[in-house]
Design a protein that fits this description.
Structural class of chain A: alpha/beta
Number of helices of chain A: 15
Largest sheet of chain A: 8 strands, mixed
Distance between the termini of chain A: 27 Å
Helix content of chain A: 25-40%
CATH superfamily of the largest domain in chain A: Zn peptidases
Oligomer: homodimer
Number of strands of chain A: 16
CATH topology of the largest domain in chain A: Aminopeptidase
Strand order of the largest sheet of chain A: 1-10-12-11-13-16-14-15
Chain lengths: 460, 460
């Protein structure tokens, strides 16, 4: 056997062909055509966010969305559609919160601050609390104040997302600890409550929800996000008089864990049915949000991937599975339960790709694996994607929902759409259908289907 | 002299360094920071479209925008700001048009169709005209009908923009002849008027304006665009009964050419002042449109490029010129007058880049030159742009305004922003400020400034 032939045979199982396989361009064209000319993702998204807004873990809206998802997947005529039971945390906002800067000296005005209790926050006393407010720009600044500067106060975290970061995700990652860990850190220094500047570059009066750490053993304080305009107004008032008090009312409560579900649809593979390729998004959203970009878009795109393959009559070699995860926003129990089930049953996931960054025009994918730099091997496919404005495979480690599958051996991936508008809407009441562009949404679904088809054909 | 040194010296004038010049990454970072943290393009755009909407050639709004531009450029403290006089065509819409499908048989309903007279259209008789309508999908289909099938009728061009085209510009170029040449072709076969399906993928009730060929010698017919929903409704009605009549009223008129202006601001080069680098957009818009994306965005970005250099204290080697062209939409007289002046005075434009594809997130540039494949030479700069989501230099031939400079020896270029949303708003009353995202607009301005800085440093 000649060396080259030997190499060719050895490489075959790895799915590393030397040159583009004929027909790949044509298949991608068929996939994108199917999405752009007869796509159903936008109409599915419209149904989901219109009929079932506010899909927070424990809510009726989420379980109604579970039923809707099962019905929608079943209508595709898949080989199997089922639900996986998951117990999820159950936090409720209760009556609307209020946060008010008090006027105590002549010449001062009281100021109502647009606010949302953070997910996980405990309630204030029924008739509210009032305390002096102290402004910081980071947890480090908080800690520098020490117990003496913090105890008995309301800590106002006002570090903005860095406007110079070209990619808003970098700015988000740089600021979000104020929301996720800040209230807890303030509590440990004796603060009585916390306010957090909303995580967005937008300057408006829309507060952004989001989770904050909650410790069942106690020592938690009430915490709320305020809009960026409210944060600027509060900061300006404190610049004039640093000794101001704020009154807050939050009516949230923790309830016992509730029953929820991951929803799973699959097309069984014809040659390698035990090798699973997964595409998914998360069904839940914040209670105050329709969750169109976060993550109705990902749900609709994940369903659309299977619809496209059905419409094209494509019989996959491997098993293709659409997983709609529950409880991404405030617990990740859906993702953990799914990975746990996969581990216990010994299921082999070769590839798991997530779409949870909004339904904007796709630009690429991140890919990660414990087996090596898969994003480099994927570069060979870039010429196939170029006609669709998709130009990058970057190193990554999956998103929150597929990440746990990486340690089980799966290559994990993330769809990377355009980023500039996402944090205008993230976790808000204005994350509505009209913010999603049908063609952008459908291009993203086609990009996912195209990558999955290539992985099914060639491996990664 | 050693060969390598000789080569280095020989290559210097061509500006083709072998390796990235130190400090380039840092300078691009400074440019993008200046745009993202203290950018003024969005606030300038807000002023332009709020104070001066409907900037059609011949209008007071356009000349008011000329004054605004001169004032805004002057406030930057440039070396020179001046206006170039240009005589422009003067077409006016007059009172709102109406297009109505008539009900003549029992069971039929009359149907008002959302319409806009096309730029250049002649008026109908004062009390309107009514005639049978015939639907075609292209000029070829029209011609196949011949005079017998067309004479005495209103031709309805209903060929949609191809939804399968991933880039909507390709779909636009494939359909727009129906608008630009269709009415004239119909007139030549004896049609009495023409209707054209709006040039957009969006399905809504917003008609899109745009120019149609007008021949001063006569033989023109009234022509209007109708919304895509109106086109679908009309087509459905004709499928039921192909013998329907339409009544139309258009009150437009042609007036003598009017005085308008290109507005030009420049920073004089310190080393090569006779070599000009130009960045520009067009000041005019359709009469019914605020013209936010088309092309208020380009105007604001072009001004912003000079503002960024001023803010950074950058003294360019070559002369940097911002040109705000008049009359792009229905005559191109601004571009032609500018190129003519450049030719007559022997000015040397080394690079002229245009921004007229909307203020969306930038993805790259097209570049063209009579001297060879400049876009290939520019590839060396891609690593510098990658952190900002800018990934492509494509072959092009400039846009409508800078294109005429190519034959004078200039390399011409176009900013390429994201494309999916542009034709939702193009030439419409909904091309409003809220459709433009401040960070996307500012990233585009920074991309232009970065490319211009590289050209100023290295040549192309």
């Amino acid at each position: 056997m000649r060396l080259s032939l030997l190499l060719a045979v050895l490489l075959l199982p790895c799915g590393l062909p030397a040159a583009p396989v004929p027909g790949q361009e044509a298949m991608l064209q068929r996939i994108f055509d199917a999405a752009l000319t007869e796509g159903r993702a936008y109409e599915n998204l419209a149904a989901l966010v219109t009929l079932h807004p506010g899909r927070l873990a424990g809510s009726k809206a989420l379980e109604d969305a579970v039923v809707w998802s099962e019905t929608t997947l079943t209508a595709l005529g898949l080989d199997r559609v089922h639900k996986q039971e998951v117990m999820v945390p159950h936090w409720e906002r209760g009556a609307p919160e209020s946060v008010r800067l008090l006027a105590e000296n002549s010449g001062e005005s009281a100021l109502e601050l647009a606010a949302l209790a953070l997910g996980g926050s405990i309630a204030t006393p029924e008739d509210g609390l009032a305390a002096p407010v102290i402004e910081v720009r980071s947890i480090d600044e908080l800690n520098a104040l020490g117990r003496e500067g913090v105890a008995g106060r309301i800590v106002f975290f006002n570090g903005p997302m860095n406007p110079a970061a070209a990619n808003p995700w970098d700015a988000y990652r740089g600021a979000v600890a104020q929301r996720s860990r800040g209230p807890r850190a303030a509590a440990q220094l004796g603060a009585v409550a916390a306010l957090v500047r909303s995580m967005t570059h937008a300057l408006d009066d829309v507060p952004h929800a989001g989770n904050t750490a909650y410790v069942p053993d106690g020592g938690n304080i009430p915490a709320a996000a305020i809009s960026t305009l409210a944060a600027d107004r509060l900061s300006a008032a404190l610049a004039v008089n640093p000794v101001r008090r704020i009154s807050m009312r939050i009516h949230s409560r923790w309830l016992p864990d509730a029953l929820s579900h991951n929803v799973i649809g699959e097309i069984r593979g014809s040659e390698l049915p035990d090798e699973i390729i997964l595409v998914g998004g998360h069904l839940d959203s914040w209670d105050i949000s329709p969750g169109a970009h976060d993550d109705g878009a990902g749900v609709a795109q994940s369903i659309e991937v299977l619809r496209i393959f059905r419409a094209l009559g494509y019989q996959p070699r491997r098993t293709l599975r659409c997983v709609l995860f529950t409880n991404e926003e405030n617990g990740l129990r859906g993702a953990l339960a799914y990975a746990d089930q996969a581990r216990r049953s010994g299921e082999k996931h070769v590839f798991a790709v997530e779409t949870d960054s909004g339904g904007f025009a796709p630009r690429g994918f991140s890919l990660g694996s414990t087996q090596g730099p898969v994003h480099e091997r994927a570069q060979r496919w870039l010429p196939l994607f170029a006609p669709y404005g998709i130009y990058t495979f970057e190193r990554g480690s999956g998103g929150a929902d597929v990440g746990p599958l990486m340690v089980l051996g799966a290559t994990v991936g993330n769809l990377l759409p355009d980023t500039q508008r996402y944090f205008d809407y993230h976790h808000t009441a204005i994350d509505t259908l009209d913010k999603v562009h049908p063609r952008e949404l459908h291009l993203g679904a086609a990009a996912l289907a195209a990558l999955i088809w290539l992985v099914d054909q060639e491996g990664l």
